[in-house]
Design goal:
Shape: elongated
Order of helices and strands: EEEEEEEEE
Structural class: mainly beta
Helix content: under 10%
Largest sheet: 5 strands, antiparallel
Strand content: over 45%
Number of strands: 9
Distance between the termini: 14 Å
Length: about 120
Amino acid sequence: MANPNLGTVTSIIGDTITAALTTTTTTTLLAGVTNKSIKVNSIIVSNINGTNSASCTFSFYDGTNDRYFSYLITIPAGSSVVLIDKNNGFYIKEGCEIRGGASLNSYLNALISYETMS
């Protein structure tokens, strides 16, 4: 697994992805890329159902194990929760992933802001 030296970075590209969370909590939401580092800046989860709450689970998959940084966090109906912000961001290297899911299909949306460095 390549892990670039951040002191020699020549390119930093910001991006944002979104996902409708399903009940499969091992769904890959963001995966590491060969010869690049990804810095996760924020993860925001919104409950788009106006009546019922739902819970979310997110993990950092290290290539072997899921290490949870959010486990069954309840998102009230019509609300959003910031799971990760710029003050506690982290890096993903090749072979690693951010995985996530919800207690109910079609209730929760995730927005992930990140930078790819090479």
